[in-house]
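REQUEST ID: PR-0412
SUBMITTED BY: lab tech R.K.
PRIORITY: routine
TASK: structure prediction, single protein chain
INPUT:
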Amino acid sequence: MNVVVWTLTLFALALWSLTAWGLHSLLTLDPGWLDDIDLLIARMPYAATIDLWFPGWQELLRLSVGLAQALLTWIGGAAPWIVWIVWTVGTVILLLLAGGVSLLLRLLRRKAGEAPAPAPAHLQQRS
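STATUS: complete
OUTPUT:
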């Protein structure tokens, strides 16, 4: 049973590492692609109708895009540190969980392997 626990742990660790690699790849992308959104905002269909319902939405959207670009620029510089810290914490949690399950299985196996206590003398059958 321990083999199953540790095999599943290694599989989960591989998926966790793949997720960390993908997160690092996304965070290190150049946030310059957000500059293209300005052109899309200007050519947005039904912009006048949206402006009736939500006045000033274009300025708010431009401000949000600028904030997102600044945030992605900062995170892109710190991406290796962020990803390493998150990956390490997740890996430690996975290994501790697998170790705990392995220990629990060992303790349960030891309890099941012990011989039952003999019945009291007054309850034993006499032949």
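NOTES: The two ends are 42 Å apart (CA to CA).
REVIEWED BY: pending
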